[in-house]
Design a protein that fits this description.
Chain A: Keywords: 2Fe-2S, Dioxygenase, Iron, Iron-sulfur, Metal-binding, NAD, Oxidoreductase. Chain A: GO terms for molecular function: 2 iron, 2 sulfur cluster binding; dioxygenase activity; iron ion binding. The complex is a heterodimer of chains A (386) and B (161). Chain A has 386 residues and is of the alpha+beta class. Chain A contains eleven helices and 17 strands. Chain A folds into two domains: 121 residues, Rieske Iron-sulfur Protein, CATH 2.102.10.10; 219 residues, Naphthalene 1,2-dioxygenase Alpha Subunit, Chain A, domain 1, CATH 3.90.380.10. The mean pLDDT of chain B is 95. The chains are: A alpha+beta (386), B alpha+beta (161). Bound molecules: FE2/S2 (inorganic) cluster (FES) and fe (ii) ion.
Chain lengths: 386, 161
């Protein structure tokens, strides 16, 4: 059901970075939901995407994750597909010595892997199996689009590393978690334990018109910071004395000015399974992939930009300790899905309570709300027809 | 001392240090983990694929002994995760040519993870790509790159590998 109505329906699914396909003939093998897909750059400079499935009997066409090829010739019986996914050659098509071969009436255009409609948003490549899907700009909405531009700023992306995290829960539990800004200061105790969090932070949530995409962010409140500095030296010392735990090497959190606003954290999701993360200078894209009902893969691509100095690169690497399978603030996110899965076992006829911040799906300038999770479910139900 | 004898001696020091290292993680409380490193050490965990492509980012990326200490402190005091323990099996170190006090070495490992309710699972396999320095008769790690064979890593990379 999800495969047909969601991942192969009118949705936009993140495929890869444009930066991963610099030259003609480059390809990457990815997934949309559980369907294997190939993304290529052809000689016309355009990016194409099609199912990673041979026209003949369905073998995988790409056996590597990435590479550069002149075409996709299947290893099974050597049927050949071009870089746009069209079937262009059949081995022994006319048989041998007048015997065997394909029917005379057989038309190569009549079979072939399904093609995806492709969209490029600031170097992020999205694909849809449905030709009639809304244009991606409308799908994302003005505000979410603006927040993607805010992070990428038209810069040239450089891949710093790729990791795949295996999580023991349904993919939707992870999506809920990324939209759940309510848990952030409660579950993740790294910042509070070492007293690294700033109380003087403001922030908010943006939910896209349909509900499925969201942005949550927090920023330094300059006015509150200044006030604190001006008259609070005494009480600051008192705060410090409450805990004797301190990081010995604070360079872990050393950051540099990258954006012209005061937003230190921005988590952005695109329905159904894409995340763009900016945690200070740690920038990554994440892709949520279902693997059956109780397992999923979370593919992380850590990115930097051309023109980063060695020092800035180093800061990005250090800040990346906060995220990923063993990250100081996302180790918990990996585990919590498993806790919820085990906790809800045998309770399929019960409902969760999602009424923090009311029952609407509108954003606002506080983060103690479950509006974006309600938004996700509202869009999910609409697209699934339930 | 002949280079041959010196090589054998350093290999033995590395083996001994590694045996203590895995014992500290598997049967100790990890607090002595940083003591196996020199002060300006480097420790990272990556995958074979990332390593082959020269990608610098890591799942853990620490460039001082204090950062190693902080990692353990955070695990013990701050992070929320499911109780678990590791069991390391390590191979014989392959020790390169001795270069003054320092030497490169490579050791294969397998780590099983035991979680609170779960069975013993094979959690990771890979190799340590190390640079060791001999200080006062002890082999200390200058740099350790933990290269995981698989690009997939289960959630909860808690304790060090
Ligand atoms: S399955 Fe691909 S050529 Fe036969
Ligand atoms: Fe979280």
């Amino acid at each position: 059901m999800e495969r047909r109505k969601l991942f192969q329906g009118e949705t936009w699914n993140y495929l890869c970075l444009e930066a991963e396909l610099p030259s003609a003939g480059d390809f990457v093998a990815v997934h949309v939901g559980e369907t294997p897909v190939i993304v290529t750059r052809d000689h016309d400079g355009e990016i194409y995407a099609f199912e990673n499935r041979c026209s003949h009997r369905g073998s995988l066409l790409a056996l590597e994750d990435r590479g550069n090829v002149k075409d996709f010739t299947c290893v099974y019986h050597a049927w050949t597909h071009n870089l746009q996914g069209d079937l262009v050659g059949i081995a022994f098509k006319d048989g041998i010595g007048g015997k065997g071969g394909m029917e005379k009436s057989f038309c190569m255009n009549s079979v072939g892997p399904r093609k995806l409609r492709v969209a490029n948003v600031e170097g992020l490549i999205f694909g849809s199996f449905d030709e009639d899907v809304d244009d991606i700009e409308d799908y994302l909405g003005e505000e979410v689009l603006g927040r993607i531009r805010r992070v990428l700023q038209g810069r040239k992306v450089v891949v710093l590393g790729r990791f795949t995290q295996v999580l023991p829960n349904n993919w939707k539990l992870y999506v809920e978690n990324t939209k759940d800004s309510y848990h952030a200061s409660i579950l993740h105790t790294f910042f509070t334990t070492f007293e690294l969090n700033r109380l003087s932070q403001k922030g908010g949530i943006i939910v896209s018109p349909n509900g499925g995409c969201h942005v949550s962010y927090s920023e330094i409140d300059q006015a509150a910071e200044a006030e604190k500095a001006a008259n609070n030296i005494y009480s600051e010392q008192k705060i410090r004395s409450q805990s004797d735990l301190e990081l010995a090497d604070k360079s872990l959190l050393g950051n540099f000015k990258e954006f012209d606003d005061d937003i230190t954290l921005q988590i952005l999701t695109v329905f159904p399974g894409f995340v763009l993360q900016q945690i200070q200078n740690s920038i990554a894209v994440r892709q949520v992939l279902p693997k059956g009902t109780d397992k999923m893969h979370l593919k992380w691509t850590y990115i930097g930009f051309e023109g980063d100095t060695a020092q800035q690169r180093r800061a990005r690497h250090k800040l990346s300790n906060l995220i990923g399978p063993g990250g100081y603030v996302s180790m918990e996110d990996g585990c919590i899905g498993g806790f919820v899965r085990r906790g809800t076992e045998g309770a399929s006829d019960t409902n969760a309570v999602l009424e923090m911040g009311g029952r609407e799906i509108e954003g606002g300038d506080d983060r103690i709300t479950e509006a974006s999770i309600r938004g996700f479910w509202s869009e999910y139900r609409m697209r699934m027809g339930i | 001392m002949s280079t041959h004898v010196r090589h054998a001696e350093i290999s033995a020091l590395i083996s001994a240090a590694q045996a203590r290292y895995v014992r500290e993680i598997d049967d100790g409380d990890c607090t002595a983990w940083p003591s196996f490193f020199v002060d300006d050490c480097f420790y990272t965990i990556t995958s074979a694929d990332n390593y082959a492509q020269n990608f610098e980012a890591g799942l853990v990326w620490l460039d001082s002994k204090d950062m190693l200490r902080d990692r353990i402190l955070s695990l013990l005091e701050a992070n929320v995760y499911e109780r678990h323990s590791y069991r390391h099996l390590i191979g014989q170190p392959f020790v390169g040519e001795v270069d003054g006090d320092e030497v490169d070495s490579e050791t294969a490992f397998m780590v099983a993870r035991i979680t609170r309710e779960g069975p013993t699972d094979l959690f990771a396999s890979g190799r340590y790509i190390d640079r060791y320095r001999v200080i006062a008769g002890e082999a200390k790690i200058v740099s350790r790159t933990v290269v995981l064979d698989s690009n997939r890593i289960d959630t909860l990379l808690g304790f060090p590998l």
